[in-house]
Structures are given as C-alpha cells and as structure tokens.
Amino acid sequence: MTSNGSSSGLVVSFGEMLIDFVPTASGVSLAEAPGFLKAPGGAPANVAIAVTRLGGRSAFIGKLGDDEFGHMLAGILKQYGVIAEGINFDQGARTALAFVTLRADGEREFMFYRNPSADMLLKPEELNLELIRSAKVFHYGSISLIVQPCRSAHLMAMQVARDAGALLSYDPNLRLALWPSVEEAREQIMSIWDKADLIKVSDEELKFLTGSDEIDDASAMSLLHPNLKLLLVTLGEKGCRYYTKNFYGHVEAFHVTAVDTTGAGDSFVGALLCKIADDRSLIEEEVRLREAIKYANACGAITTTKKGAIPALPSHSEVLSLMKGSQ
Q1: Which residues form a coiled coil (predicted)?
Q2: How far apart are CA 24 and CA 101, in angstroms?
Q3: Which of 109, 112, 154, 158 could form a disulfide with 144 if both were Cys (CB 3.0 to 4.6 A apart)?
C-alpha cells in the first residue's frame, strides 16, 4: 500500500545520477563563484525519488563511480526508499560532476566533468534484467544515448522493458553542452522517438526538435507518432499541454513564488508516472488524465519554491494542501 492508499506499480528509471556543484552566491558566473555546495542530481534519479516521495515504488538503474561521491549518491537513493539493486559501480571512472550556475539573467550555465564518467560506461551485460522486467513504467532520458557502451545498454533496457509489457516513458532532457553537435543531439534524441508510449518535452525542447519558433498545437502534433499514447508539453508557469490520439488540451499551472526551477520537470514526470503506474487506463480518459496532470503541475510548482532538486521534491500531503488551497 502506498501513502495515498493504493497498491503501487513499479516505476524503473534509467540513466545518469551525478553531483551538481551550485555556487553559494546567486547571479554569478562559475568563475566568479566564491564557493560551491554539492547537490545530488541527474534527471532519471530525481524522477525515481519524486515517485517514492509521493508514496509510489521506484527503482534506479545506472552506474556510479566506486568513489565517495558514488556511494553517497547510492546512499541517498536508498534513504528515499528507491530500489538500488540496479546500480553498478565502476572501479576506473569517477562519478559525473556538473558545475551549475544561475546567471543574473536567470539562464543556467553548465560545466560538466565527464571524460568519461561512470554513468557513460554502463554495459548491456551489467543490466539487472529481472528488475527491468518488473517495471510497470520504464522511464529514461537522452543523455544515456550520447556514447557507447551506455547507448547499447539503454537500447537493450528499453527493449527488455517493452517485451515485458512496461509502458515506455521518455523525457529527452536536452543538455546541448554534452552532445558533440546540435545536429547529433537532434538526430539521436529522435532516433528512439517512435518507441515511446509517453513523451514529455519542455517548450524549449519542442522548439529545438521541431525547428520552429511556434509553441502551438500544430507544432506539438507534428511530434506525434502511431505508438504514442500521450505527449506532454510543459510550459513553466503557463502550465502543461497534453495530446493523445483522441483528445488534447491544456491544464493551468499553480502560481507560487519560484526560487529555483531545478528538478521541477522531474517532479512533474515522477508524479504523473506514479499515477500511471497504478492505473494506465487514465491516459485514455480525459477527465482523469487532467486530474493527474493537475496533481503533477502541483508537484512541479512546489519543487520550484525551494532550492535544489531532491530536497524540494514534495510529499503527497504537501501536494494535496497546495491543490486544496488554490481551489
């Protein structure tokens, strides 16, 4: 039983977990930062923790360095109740690091230490296939597609999950700084597009993938494919648009005072997957889908009100109180 009173399907999240180093002062460049605080991150890991924070069940599959940071990250997953049997440790490579700063103009600036980092070295034969086969929902991004051998492990894990009947969930989570070129990023992100049952993109990712400056229904619908059950386009404080074969629409955002948007998209995804893992049929019923998106919007909103991604992920009761308070 979960904290919200239902037995819960397993969400398995695949990909990278790393440490973000965030400046102690805001609105400065990396070079100007007087010091840094370490913050655990990595979109797939954030999603896994978002699920357990809401009372769902999740597992993380990926590779960390056999170093202090790697064991610290594995410990954080366990502390939040995420199943950690899919984690491998690499003796030769370090856990990935990212220096992230919010510049005075509000834009994030990234500098990654991955040459190569442990997450890039996950091999197909290291996958915990039993864990993957037990997933109701298998979730992944695109960073794990950038280099071998992780790319092969990613493709194999997707196939194993699909063969076992899991719903495949994809959030490209574009980080251009990690790709060799813009063209390669677009091509590889799209290379697995038609395998996903559910895809979530941000407004900026929609523009990048379509090559259009328009964030409208026609632009979003150009990304639909025959197997896709649900496409979500998140619009920050403007809420979220949803598209299925039979209906489409828009759900308003909750208005909060945002401090740090890091992890808001992962919180949104985790909340939605938590609901879908319990009952996949809600994708086909617009009223219930809208309710689930509203819940996910509330999760994303709460996450922006605190610094950091993981410490800001809300509990089920926090989400309910925001939803009640705004009625």
Answers
A1: none
A2: 10
A3: 154
Q: What is the three-class DSSP state of 99?
A: strand
| Catalytic entry in 20, 171, 197, 266 | 266
Q: Are 311 and 259 in contact (CB under 8 A)?
A: no
Contact 265, 202 (CB under 8 A): yes
Global confidence as pTM = 0.95
To the query of whether residue 197 is one of the catalytic residues in this protein, the response is: no
Residues in CB range of 125: below 8 A, 6 or more apart:
none
